[in-house]
Inverse folding.
């Protein structure tokens, strides 16, 4: 399915942004139930992966998405509103636990919301768990989020990939705030939010090739869609929606063509039109490095991130099976 942003109306600070998005989700070739959920409606492009093997994993992931639903319909999200939605999701998921359960329900959450910072449209990216958010820009794919997993904390240790150290719920006592990144949007940017069922089956180089192949056809339609109102712009916007939907479907199909052992979900959000007023600018304390700079790491891109949150749980964390 694909989702488009609401019609552009009066936008604060002279900034205008058109987003088109597509999403695809599948239970995979092995599992009988799809515990992934997603939201692909402006201003939020989010994936949640319910904890496999945990009770009510599908309900937990849907609770995370449902908490963000009140933000849908606005052109711009507020960062604090996104944080509050995650807190509400945590409370809702805690309420799902039943007496006598040995494994509490839980979910990951990852993705981007569009926000304004001093008139500049930005991707506000959040992450808890081992789902991932990537930024595709000018044919290059960059993983933005950092996996909250035992293997990520201790590379080369041989620890199981599916032991995650942070989640919403899942019986983890330390329920830390999400990691956060703030990245100014460029026209033609695409956000990929996905569950681990995608990136464990499809190498990053293939993810990049699939996106580049699918989104490489978008530039001409972007120019027409950004030209203003009229039938031509409407047709071009529809073409962009189809391109985003096809990109998401192609990614999921690539995972299914491999072993496809897990649930797999991909949300692709494309910045199809961007206009800024001359006065729009980020303050120095909010300006972030180019995510594709050779000198930058993902930690350099993080906004408001406390590094001590990385190890808020022991290696006996939740198993995302």
């Amino acid at each position: 399915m694909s989702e488009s942003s609401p019609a552009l109306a009066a936008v604060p600070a002279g900034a205008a942004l058109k987003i088109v998005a597509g999403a695809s989700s599948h239970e995979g070739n092995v599992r009988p139930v799809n515990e992934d959920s997603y939201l692909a409606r402006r201003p939020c492009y989010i994936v949640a992966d319910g904890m496999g093997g945990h009770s009510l994993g599908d309900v937990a992931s849907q609770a995370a998405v449902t908490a963000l639903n009140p933000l849908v319909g606005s052109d711009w999200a507020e960062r604090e509103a996104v944080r509050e939605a995650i807190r509400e999701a945590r409370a809702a998921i805690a309420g799902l636990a039943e007496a006598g359960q040995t494994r509490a329900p839980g979910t990951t959450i990852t993705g981007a919301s569009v926000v304004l910072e001093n008139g500049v449209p930005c991707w506000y990216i959040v992450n808890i768990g081992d789902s991932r958010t990537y930024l595709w820009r000018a044919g290059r794919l960059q993983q933005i989020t950092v996996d909250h997993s035992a293997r990520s904390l201790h590379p080369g240790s041989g620890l199981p990939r599916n032991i995650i150290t942070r989640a919403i719920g899942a019986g983890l006592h330390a329920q830390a705030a999400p990691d956060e990144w703030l990245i100014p949007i460029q026209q033609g940017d695409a956000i990929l939010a996905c569950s681990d069922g995608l990136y464990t089956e499809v190498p990053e180089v293939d993810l990049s090739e699939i996106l580049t192949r699918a989104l490489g056809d978008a530039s001409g339609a972007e120019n027409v869609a950004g030209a203003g109102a009229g039938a031509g712009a409407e047709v071009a916007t529809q073409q962009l929606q189809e391109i985003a939907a096809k990109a998401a479907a192609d990614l999921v199909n690539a995972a299914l063509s491999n072993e496809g052992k897990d649930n797999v979900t991909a949300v692709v959000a494309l910045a199809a039109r961007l206009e800024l007023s001359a006065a729009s600018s980020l303050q120095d304390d909010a300006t972030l490095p180019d995510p594709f700079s050779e000198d930058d790491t993902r930690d350099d891109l993080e906004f408001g991130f406390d590094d001590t949150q990385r190890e808020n749980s022991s290696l006996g964390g939740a198993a995302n099976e």
The first helix runs from residue 57 to 68. The helical segments are 57-68, 79-94, 150-153, 196-199, 204-215, 218-225, 231-257. Confidence is low (pLDDT under 50) at residues 1-13, 223-229, 283-288, 295-316. The CA atoms of residues 25 and 265 lie 4 Å apart.
